[in-house]
Write a structure and sequence with these properties.
Layout lengths: L3 H24 L4 H22 L12
Helix pairs in contact: 1-2
Length: about 60
């Protein structure tokens, strides 16, 4: 179930994760795990951006607002 409020909350959480991982990334040596984490955060942000723009409901994914 998607709502504007929940998507905004998810965006805030992902943005905070992105900032924290970026700070960590700049200070430390990075490996596969850190690169995977950053890529996962970016992918989640891209998916959330598309979900936010999609207003139609399909199957079990639907908006309540």
């Amino acid at each position: 179930m998607r709502s504007r409020r929940r998507m905004n909350r998810a965006w805030r959480l992902l943005s905070e994760l992105d900032l924290e991982s970026d700070r960590f990334y700049r200070k430390c040596e990075f490996g596969d795990a850190m690169i995977g984490l950053r890529n996962g955060i970016v992918m989640a942000q891209l998916v959330l951006e598309q979900v936010t723009q999609c207003v139609e409901s399909r199957d079990c994914h639907y908006r309540i607002d």
